[in-house]
Each structure stands twice: as C-alpha cells, then as structure tokens.
Amino acid sequence: MQSIVDHDIYFLKLVIITFIVLLCIIKSSHADSGPFTYPGNGHNYTRYDIGSGNYMNANMKCAMLDFYGGKNYAATFTTKEEFDWAVSVGLINNIPVFIGGTLSGGKLMFGQGPETGQLLYDIPIGRPYSFYQPIPEYTFPSSEMGQLYALFDGNVSFQGFQPFDQSLTSVICETGGVTDPILSQLDTIGGVLQISGLTGYNLSALTVTFTSTNLVDPTPSFGCVGSITKTSSSQVNCTVAPGTGSYNVQVTDGKKTSVAVVWSFNTPYLKSIYPSLTAGTLFTIYGDNFGDNATKIKVYLTSDMILCSVQEELIPGKAYTLTYDIPLTQQLLPITIIVDNVRSFLNQVPICKDSSSYSFFTPYTPMKSFVAFSNRIVTNVGPADEGIEPALGVIEFAATANLLIASYPKFYTPGRTWATWEDLAVTYPTNSFTRYTNREPIVPYNSTIVDVSQFNANGYLYFDFTNATIYRDSTINLQALVQHIPLVYLATDTAIRANTTGLASVKLNLTSYGSRFASTQLFFVNGTQVLYPGYNPVTNYGNIVISIPEGYDSIPYAVKTDSRWFNTTITYNPPKISSVSTTGTVGGAITITGTNFYKSNQVVSVSLLGKPCSTPTITSPHTEISCVVPAGSGSGNVVVTVGMQPSSSVPWQYNAPTITGVLASGNPSLLDITGTNFFNVANRIRVYASVPTRKNVQCTGVSVTTAHTRLGATVPKSMQGRTVNVSLTVSNTASNPFAVDLPPYLDSVDRLPYTEGSDVQITAYFDTVDKSGNNITSVQVFINGTTTYIDCPVRSLPPTAAILNCTIPPGFFQFSVRMGSPWGQSNLLAIKYAPPTVVSASPVKYEIGGLVTVSGNSFGNLTQPPLVWIGNYTNMISCTNATLLDPFRIECHYTGSVPAPADKTRSLNVTVTSTFGSATKEVFIYSIVLSCQNNCSGHGVCNTDTGNCQCDIGYRKSADCSIADAGNGGKPETSENGTTVIPVEGLNFTIAITHLREIDIDGVPIKTLPLADVEWDTELLDNDTMLHNGNFSYDSALISIISTYFADSTTITFAGQDMVMPANSIKYEITVANWTWAGPLSQLQVVYNSATDHQSMDGCQLSETNVTTSNDGDSIYWFQISSGKTVMNAKFANRLIVDDRVIRSSVKLLDKSDELYKNITSQSDKFNLLTAMTTPYFSDKVVLDPSFSALLKYRQDESSDPCSVTDEVSNWKIIVISVCGGIGLLAVASVSAIAIKRYRVTHGAKQKLNRLAKMNQNSSHG
Fold first, then answer.
1. Which residues neighbour 304 within 8 Å (Cβ) at sequence distance 6 or greater?
2. Residue 1210 in contact with residue 984, Cβ under 8 Å?
3. Out of 3.30.1490, 2.40.128, 2.70.98, 2.40.160, which CATH number does the structure's domain 964-1193 have?
4. Could you report the per-residue pLDDT of 54-70, keeping only the tens digit for each?
5. What is the pLDDT of residues 1129-1184, one digit of tens each?
6. Nearest to 1048 by CA among 1118, 1116, 1117, 956
7. What CATH number belongs to 658-742?
8. Taking the model in full, what pTM does it have?
C-alpha cells in the first residue's frame, strides 16, 4: 500500500511540475521572429523562444498557442523554395531551431500538421520523398525519440535530427492547412491518390483540378482519371495519371471550393551511379521517379552544381547516360536532381566500381567495432541496383579507393576526414588477411607496404581515406563501409529444370549477377561462354539462352559473369506416365507411354503392382517403354523409375474377367463357367449369383478347371429356382454378369407324414413370381418320379424361399418328390413316413386288465399289425392280440399287472413297434371308480370306469340325465374375445379362468398372473370352434384356448379318456406354455371362478344356491351348481397332458380363506366358487380339458305352475362363460336385450360384443 501511495505522490508532483513548466512557457512566450506569411501556401510561420527545451517542449509550445483562431504546429518544410524563403526572412539562421519531423523505423516522416504520417526520408537506403538536405557527417541517435531541426550558417542550409535528451532554444510554429484538403504521396508512375479532410463537401459532385506551379514550362492542368471513389464521409480516392512536378490542387463540389493546396509527385532518387570523373565522358545514373519526360530532368554534380546533359534514356523514368563539360574541382557528391521543379539532394549513393557497388552508411551512432554494425547493415541498408544485397566492405583496388576518395562529399565539420571500418581480419600464424565475417582470403588495397604482423594486437581494421592506409584501433568511433557484392543466382529458382530430352535453347533469368550498366557482360556456362543473340543488358537484364543436354536425375551447373560463379544444378524432371496398355491374366508385354523416360535401358525400371515388370526396354527414347508382365490378377499401381527419380503412380489392372458362357448341372447347381482372364489361383476368385432382391450371393467350391478360361462353382441352394446373374471377381476386379436358369431346390420337410397320410410343409427355394411376372400360388409335386402329382399351395418365405403346403397320401415306404417350375424340375427330395406316434391309451383296472385302445399315428399297414407293450422301463408287459382298428387306433389285451408309478405326476409307458419304427410314450393310467353326476338322476346307468351316464331315451341331452330333451335352451355363441353366451331359462351363471398361479411344494403362492391382463388374438377355425391366443405384456407366459360348441350330445376322447358332451355344451382345451418357473418342485394352478346369485326362485319358493362335487379320491372330476330350477355342470377330464406324457389330473375347490377370494365381489347376494386345476412342473406346455353346460330343470307340471312365467321371451336368461375376461364379467342380461338369433363373427362383431360386455357389466350391478 505504501508503494502505491508513493507512486501517486510522485505522479502528482510530476503533473504539478509539468503544469508550472507550461505556465512558464506560456508566460515567457514571445515571438523571436515573425509572424511571416509564405506566399506559396498562405500559411503563417513564427519562431518562438522556448528557453532551453527538448522536442516535447517545442511541440507543446506550438500546440498551446493560438494564432488568430488557427491551430499551430511545428512547421513542415516540403520544398526547397519553402525552406529558402524561411532562411530569407530570418526564421532559419545559424542557431538550430526545431521544425516538424520525427523518426520511426529508420524513416523520417512528418509528425505534425496536414502532412502527418507522410514520409520525408528513408535513412538506410538514402531515398527522399520530399525536400530533405542533410550534412554528410550527421549521425542519427540509437533512440528514435526526437525531432528535426533546421540550420543556416550563412553558407550552408541543412536539416538534422535532435534527440530527445538534447535541447534547443527555439521552434518554428506554422498555422494553416489543417482544415484544407490533405493529399497523400504518390510516385511519378501515378496511381490512387487519397484526398481527405473533405468535411462539408458533397463528395458525389466533387471535382479535383491540378494546376502546375512551373511557370516556365507548365504541364497542362488535369483532373482525376475516371470517377472519384468515396471511401468515407470525408475522404475519396482519385486516380492520377503518370507525371512529374508540383501543383496547386483545388477541390470543389460546385458550391464549396477549397483553397489551392500545394502538392507534388515524390522526389527522384538514385539506386546507383556509374561515374566518370572526366568531363565530356559518359556518366550513367540509375534510380526512379524521373518521370516520362527527359527534357524536364536536370542533374547537377558536386556542391558547385555542375549541370549535366542527358544523352540517352536507357530505361524510361529510371536510367540515363549523362555528360558534363566543366571539369570537377569538388567531390562528386552531392548530386542534385530537379525534375519539373521537384528537387532531390543526394549524398548517400552506391557508387559502382570493379563489378561492385560501394557506398557508405551512416549508423545511428558510430561504434568502436564494425562487428556491431554487421546485422544492422544487412537488415537496414537497402539493396542497390537490381537487388544486390549489402555487406560490410573491403577496398581491393587503388582505382576503387581513388574513386571513393574523389566521390565522397566533404564533411561540414572542419578538419573531419573519411575513415571507415572494413570487413578485415588477420589469420595467424600465416599473417594473412581474410574477411572478418566469413574468413575468406582477401587482399585489401593499402597505399603503403603492409606489415600484417602489426595488426595482431587488439582492435579492428579501418581504411583512412586521407592517405589510403589501413589502420587498427579499438577506441575510436567510425562509420562503416558498405559493399554491394553481386552473387549470381536464378531469379525464380535455385535450380534449372528440364525434361530428359534436354533443351536446344532455354532462356534463363539471372539476377544479382552484377550491374546491368557495368562494362563486362560476359556469361560462361560450365566454362563455355554463352550469349543471347541481341542481348541488351539494360532492357533485357539477366536473360541469357543456354542449351541443356539429354540427361536424368541431376547434373552440376555453373554460371559465371564478371568473374563471379553461380553453382547450381540442372534437375531433370521425373518420369511421367500418360498411359499404360493392359494384358490378360496370362501376362505378356505391355507398353507405357509418357515423358522423361530417358533413352537408356540401364537406368529404367518398372514396378507393377509392387513387383518388377521384367525386361524394361526403351522402345522410343524418352516417351515409350515396354516390359513383360507375369501372369497375375488384380489391380494396383505402375511406377516408372529413371535413375533415382520415380514417377507418380498410375492405377493399373489386369484385364477384367469376361464370362462367355455358364452351364448349370446338378441341384444345388454346379456351374461350369467359361470365359477369359480367370487367372489360375482359386482363392483369388469369387463367384456370385444375383437377383434383383438379393445381390452378390457368394458361391462355394470355386475351382479352376482350365487356367484363365474355365471355372467351377456351386450355387447356394437359396438361389435355386430362378433366373440368376452369374458374375465373378478376380482379385476384386469384376466381370460382366451372365444370366442362367437354375431349377428349384427342395430343401426339407417340416415333419414326416403319417402312414395314414397327412399335411406337411416342404421348404423349397424358387422364385414365387414366374418369368412373366405372375405370382405362383401352387405347384405340382410329382411322387416317385412318376407323372402322379399333387397340387401344393405356395406361401412365399422371403427373401428366396417358399413353403409348399402338401397333403401326402397314405403309404408305408420311403418315397421321393420333385416339383416342376418355369426354370426346370427340382431335385428329388427323399421322404419317408413317420414312425409310430403314441398319443393316448384307454384305461383298464389294475390287476383286472382288459382291452386297451392305443391312439396315435403311423401305426402302419393294416395287414401287419404292430406290437404293443405297457409297463415301466424295467417291466414291460406285452399287450397281446394287437389289432389295427383303423390307421389311428390299436386294440390289444393288457393284463393290468404292472403297478402304477408311486409318483402321481408320472404314468406307465406304452410302446408301439411296427415295421417302420418304434415309439414310447408315458400315457397309460389305470382307471378308477368314478361316480356320475346325480347318479344319472334315475334316468340312466352310471359307467364307473368313465364317470359318464348312459341316459335313457328322452334324457340324453344332459350329462346327468336329469333334464328332459326339451329344456336346454338355445345355441351358445362364442365371440372373438372368448366370451360364450348360453341362453337358458332361469338363473345367470358366469364361469371365468381368472388366474394362473405358481405355488411351491407347500402350496404357498410364488407368482400370480391375472388373466384380466392378457392381450388376446382370436381366430375363427370353423362355425363351432374358435382359437384364442393370449400373452402378457410383462411376463413370458402364453395361454391358448380352443373353445368348441357341441349342438348334440356326443362322446369325445381326451388323452385316452372318453367324455360325454351334453347337447348345447362348450368344451375347452387349455394350453399354458413358456412358463418361467421359480424351481422344479413348483406347481401351476389354473384357477376358475363360477359365479351366480346366492338365492333364486324355484317356482313360488326362494331357493339357496348350492354346489355338489364328485368325491372320487383327492381330485374332483365334476361339480354342479344348482340354483332354483337351473343347473350349471362343470366336468373335468381325470387326466391332463404334461409335455408329452399323460398323467392323472388334480382338481380342487379352493378354500374360502384363499387370497384370491379377496378379489371377488363381497356382495352377500352373490355366490362364487374358485376351482384350481393343478399341474406339476413342465418344460414345454401343459394341456387341460374342462367342459361346461347349463341346463333348465324339466317338470311335467310346469305349464300349470302358478308361479311360472308365461311370457316365452322373458323366461330366458343369459349365462356368460368368460374364459378370458376375468372375474369382473358377471353377466346379467336378458335375451330380449340382444334378440334371439344366431350371432355370426363378422367384420362388425367387435362392436356388438363391446355393447354386450357393457350390458353385462351394467346388469351385474343392477
């Protein structure tokens, strides 16, 4: 914090001191001289005394003063006339005075007034842009902080630079021009001139007029070339034609007109001179900004201003030869040039002598060692004459020393003489001179005999121009001699390039090889002098013509001029390939054309696909090569190498394979492909078959039958039975396609047909669209190669297969099939009939035995009955006298002697053996004594083996013989969602499968799936049968239900058990599959709910609903729910199918405490009964087979019952048996609400069923 405070106090003191100084300046300000008005521009100039101050005090002085409301600034002098006028009125005298001008980047420029930022003088290269007249010995400080000053001592007037740490007593201030138009600088070649300071002018209407100030030989007035371009609100661009001279420039827009502003083209300057010190001889100057009119050029030599005459214009605006008549009595420099009244004063000019150009360089501060100057000289001193770079110099000849002594201007300071550091050092112990910077030997000029040993002390060597002698010193400050040494090199490149053919004449542009105005212009190439015919070094500088011989790679090349060598190389262009002929895979000669192949076989090599192409031969020099390609295939690159130079790679490949023929034989088809360029290596060859829908299917087993011309390959079976395009690639080079018909391919049969005949699906490969674009819907399949055929419908199996649905006729022995197609006949597919399949067996009583009927398929020839055994794996008993009742059933006598398995989830094996094979299934269960429903109601006889009643005539439409034939209602209708409607008179019943539940070995539930969550897909198989497939969105389990309606009483068989289906009843076959088990000891329960009203009317009495079940062991096989005069019967098969085995079923009523009862309505007037069919663990599926019917009790005196309903329609009610809707669908709806008719499943069935479901739901709450 203290340092910050101290800093603030210091800054405050500095501000106070500066303010006091300014007050003192203002208070003490008085005009030392003036004011004066310069007629040339109308500006006012005043010289003010500033006491003793630096350039900042001077600038502040001008800035703080007000001259009649005008802005003051340090005066800028842009012309000799303006400067001389200031001398004439006493503004500039023998006391140095500050004027406007600053230093930046080695360039003097105007830092004040209208010309701010414009260049005045480029110090390193000695180029003036405006009037500037320095003295020879003046040195510029190392710091660029400072300002110009002016001086006139009564003899000489000049300008210098005063550094910031040195003071002067006066400053000249100028007023005027700040509000006038300001014009930028421009060389005599013309171009774009920027005019700024145009505030208040209408720039779109602007005109600019240039009027010459030369009153003797004025240039006609002119304006801008073309249109004036606006670049900002106060600035425009004006294109000026080439010209010279000084002008009064006036700007106007028709309403506002500026004062005349003095402006001139940039001053002329010199790059080099080629002097003659003898009057009457030619003198050459070379520079720029001389303009396009030589008559306006005046050149004066020496301070005596000896006028030269222009003899010849060598280069317009740049180079001239001069003569002068008056002998020189003063130093050659300075040279004064006046072009159309625009003047340059030049005393820093490169002087050409001895094939080099010499000049001096004034460093910012003289140093005690030329070493300190070296980097500055190279970077700051400009190139002389055509870009010859500067370096520290050495005077080697007396003539050079004499020329420089006679040329360099005299110093203003009395007694001061020229002495410059030289690029010299002494090498010991030889005591010889070398250049200090590069240690190259050199012999410097010295007017006396040099004892080199005297220079072995400390110090550096310099040349004294007074006596032309070399000295050593380490303490004095000297300037440096700058020598421009030409080094020959090409203008555009460091090497010469040519084709291998060489060049008869090539034009080289050499640069920096010496001055174009030098006396020697002889060129030597590799020691031989060359000269471009009509060569003119002035107008055709450096352009010579040489011849280049044939060659390759590169050869050394040297150019010599003015005793200086340029060592380079001729680099021959690398080979370039324009075309390469091809050859087949057998190999052979190829021809390569191009350029730069040279002419010698010994230096040429060819690489093809990474391997040599043998025997490369130049068949046409430089342009054509032949070589021999080995047998091969594929593609890659060709590279030609000549000497050490490779060409760019060019893509090349062996000729593409061409297929000319394809023959197909066998099935799957073996292709015999003929053509060319197949090569001879099979693993490089790929054969493909394609159709529009399937591209480039690869063939297998490719083999080369005949090298390069013949192949074999096998088509994949998936591409058979269609027209395919055969193509191939050899090392990825593709052939043409070739179309060929391939016959169909019969692949496989999904299952073996039964001997009694059955439907099978044959997978075949062929196109199901024929050649005419028609769909193939069926095909003829021929049996055993005969003309006997069967029609098989076709189902497409994209992308290339199809399924043939064929009905195979009965038979016993293996046979074969073949199909026909538009592409020919297929292969023969051998099929044999399936061996025996055991599905079920009828029961007999244990140890009593009897006839057993075994059901299944493929039991064989009726004349050759199969053999049957029943038992377990260790004890199989023959079932004797086996007889084929028909192709599906065998009857035999079994003793019933093998005990049933102790495991209730297992059963006995039944084995059937025929001439076609053998099959064993676990399907035999002993019969048990089963009760019948209501003991057949006194109208029939109970079959205790099956639990079925044999009812008397007139009672056969009910399972328990309890109902007369007239009372069973209308036909049930089953909807798409599995809901069945049974019209009866009486009470409503609903039966639904509600849950699938897995329980463990102790009966504890593990997983429960409500069937209300099932998504159903329904298919109508026929008028009486529907298929319902369901799945859960969150579980893998699948459920399938086939519901079948029986209009009349009939007997069906399930898993070997005969079951009587009453008239007007529904049977369900339920399959559960894909169950994910918690463990192998788990069991699955399929749970039903049977629901109705708790009470109902039976005539005039209110009757309680009750249930009656069978009592035949651990499982129930039927139950009846009676309510009033209506009975609902449910019956269950005493067996079920678990995977492929038949076991005894287990059906139980769930206890009222079971958790599933919680989901049932708690209304007291409702009766619910949950029944579970339990299955053991299964891997694939389980099949169950319950059946249901609802019956109306028949009474003889019903018609006279006073409590009966006489309205026929209102007597009928609907019982809905819901197998997929869940517990929630309790149906209470009358037939009259939907009309008595047969419901057909049509397009509009879903809307009708939705209405029915809504009616059922509404009724359940009524």
1. 329, 330
2. no
3. 2.70.98
4. 989 999 999 988 777 77
5. 888 888 899 988 999 889 999 998 899 988 776 667 788 899 999 999 999 988 88
6. 956
7. 2.60.40.10
8. 0.51
